[in-house]
Structure formats: structure tokens, C-alpha cells
Amino acid sequence: MSDIIVSEVSKSFGREVLHSLSFTVNSGDFLSITGESGSGKSTLLGIMGGVLRPDKGSVTVGGTDIAALSEKELAVMRRTRLGFVYQFFNLIPTMTVRDNILLPLVLDGKKLSDYQKKFDELAMFTHLGGVLDDYPETLSGGEQQRAAILRALIHDPEVILLDEPTGNLDSENAHAVMTLLSDLNKKYGVTVVQVTHSEQGAAYGNRVITIKDGRLL
Q1: The total number of structural domains that make up the chain
Q2: pTM for this structure?
Q3: Span 129-157, mean pLDDT?
Q4: Rounded mean pLDDT of 64-82?
């Protein structure tokens, strides 16, 4: 089980951004975190993914208190147990779509042939089979985001964390990406946590929490 337990988490950057937040994300949930700009939701996502450390409190992912890990241990966890998807895709422009997707496996020294079946299945599921040998700049925004999602999934993470996954997409591509995320969550049972401004995007989750001024409403 890969439950995420957020317990009394606080964070300050000169001023307190998060105020003693506590909640649990059950394994297999699709959680949407909403709130206005500056509410602290992206900071919370960073803490849940081990990118930021809380000033107080703890975040436990699948029984591991990530705030207690060393930087090296955190790097390994982010590379092997978590998947990240960002608003602006973060694909490397000089690498093909295929190589971008496989990069987490390469960095972790994995044998690529062991993941070929998973790669082929995900490429078909995300409708990217025809663009795998193209470069990111030739893809639409929706295709680039689907490639970023496939990259986040290729190493079988326990949790996928998404920061405004549709913030850079038009409404048609946003709908397609959110439908894909919902289908992936149901098919593979991976826990999904997204931060979003979009009420429509938030509705794809099976749970929604709202943050205002660093506190849960």
C-alpha cells in the first residue's frame, strides 16, 4: 500500500505559507488540490514529492517518512517511487520523444528491454506510437504532456504528482489529458495527486481538497 500521510506540515518562506496541514491520500486515490494562486498548494505538492522539506511535521509515502531521508536517499526515491509531471512538460528538446520517456530508466541504470512491454502498452494507451521518434518541438502541447505523463509512469511509480498539468493547454487538449490521467489511475491503480486551478480538471479526481492561505478549508 502506498498511502500518503501528511501530518502537521508547516512551511515558511519569510512568512508562513503552510499552517499545520494534515490529511491522508489513500493508495489508488486521484486527489485534486485546489486553491487560488499563492494559497500554498504548489509548495505542498513539492513537500509531498520530497522536492521541499517541511519546517515542521512529516510526509509518509508508503511507510517512508520522506522528510527524514538524506538528499541522496530523496533523489533515489524521486527517481524510483515517484513520478512528476509539470505544466511546461520539461521534455529535453535535443532528445526524441522515445528517449525522453526512457530517460528515468537510463538514469537509474535499468535494463531497457525489461520495460519494453510496459513501454509499448503505455505508448498505445497514450496514443503516442506515431511520434516516438520525433522531437518535442514537433508535437502539440497535448502530445508533449502525454509524453511527460508516459515518462512519469515508465518506471512503475507508486505515486504521480502533477503541478497544473493542463495549465498550458487549450480546453480540448486539457480534456484529453485529464481523461487520460483518470483512465491511467483506474487501469494501473497508481495514486495520482494533482494541483490545479481548474474546477473542470479537479472534478476528474475522486477526491478534492481546497487550500486557502495555507490552511485546509
Answers
A1: 1
A2: 0.91
A3: 93
A4: 89
